Amino acid sequence: MVALVDALEEAARLRSAEDRRRNTVEPTAHGQEILHRAEQARAEAERRFLAALSDADAEFLAALRTLAGVAEAEREQDGTAAR
User: What pTM did the predictor assign?
Assistant: First the structure.
């Protein structure tokens, strides 16, 4: 895994400031740009998908997403979140 991360241009492996035995993986500037472009593409795809929905369906979907976010936050708090 270390060799794979080291080979990536989009991520950098850094020593943890708290524990020198631990490494963290963070996106490089190039990785951040890729993440930004991916987020823009996701938002555009979502916009196009939602444009086909009626107002009522779009509101219902938004409510479902809110409930899913609340449920995920609760799972994270009690340690049962999907990994």
Answer: 0.59
